[in-house]
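The protein record filed here:
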Amino acid sequence: MRKHYDFSHATKNPYVKKLKQQVTLRIDGGVIDYFKNLSGAYGIPYQSLIDLYIRDCVRKHKKPPLII
C-alpha cells in the first residue's frame, strides 16, 4: 500500500442517500419473536424481514389501526 493517497480529485458517492440508516426502535418482544420465527422459515435475517415488511407498508400506503 502507498503511504499517501491523493483524494483531491475524488467525488462524493452519489448513492450515499440511498443507504440504510441505523435507528433504535422499542419493539414488543412478541413482535420480535414473530419475525425471528418467520426469518428462520425464509432463511433471511429478521431485521431484513422487518425492513421488507415496513417497506411494503410504505409502498401500499398502509396505515396502522390505532387503539387509544
Notes: The chain is about 40% helix and 0% strand. Helices lie at 29-42, 46-59. Residues 26-59 form one domain. The two ends are 61 Å apart (CA to CA).
